[in-house]
Amino acid sequence: MKQKRPAIEILSPYNNSVRQAYNAIYRHAKQLLSLENEELRFGLEREERGQPIVGTIIHEFVNPLLYLRLEYHPTNSFAIHYGFEESKSFNQFAKITASFVRNIYKITAKESTEINIEDSVRTDYCIYLCSELYEYAEERNKHHQFKQIKYRPTAAKRKQMQAVA
């Protein structure tokens, strides 16, 4: 049986910093996925509503292109796992996945945070078939909620649409 950890560990400065970084990464991921292609704007989200305990998922986002998870790691610290759809050759989505990965390491770099949280990014596993994970989670959905990211055209695209109208 899992035991609850004292709130002091969960609310440590390190864990707060990791959570803030995770939220920034998550917001950036949603911006990257604000695409015209509606299928790629769908995601499955899972969120722990209660007090997290060691080994639980605090938040998880699954999309056909990107994967992001914040968990309460067995070391009593928060950890970030990520994934991206593997691309065999340079395609239209490579820019999105590359930007996502670069942003993870930019936001968690020790130069970017008051507390060094670089080790919060875990690579003991990396999801590289996000589309298959998305389909699996969608079919067996027990913990996730469907969410659709709103399409926000870029400034150039808005000007182009206004010129046509």
Give an account of the 3D structure.
The protein has 165 residues and is an alpha+beta fold. Helices cover 35% and strands 18% of the residues. It is built from 5 helices and 5 strands, in the order H-H-E-E-E-E-H-H-E-H. It has helices at 7-10, 13-32, 94-107, 130-139, 155-164, and strands spanning 42-47, 57-62, 66-72, 78-84, 145-148. The longest helix has 20 residues, at 13-32. It is globular.
Summarize this structure briefly:
This protein has five helices and five strands. By secondary structure, it is of the alpha+beta class.
Low-confidence parts:
none
Distance between the termini: 62 Å
Instruction: Return the average pLDDT rounded to an integer.
Output: 85
Shape: globular
Main pleated sheet: 5 strands, antiparallel
CA radius of gyration: 17 Å
Beta percentage is 15-25%
Topology as H/E string? HHEEEEHHEH
For the secondary structure, the number of strands is 5
Structural class: alpha+beta
Name the helicity range: 25-40%
Largest sheet: spatial strand order: 4-3-2-1-5
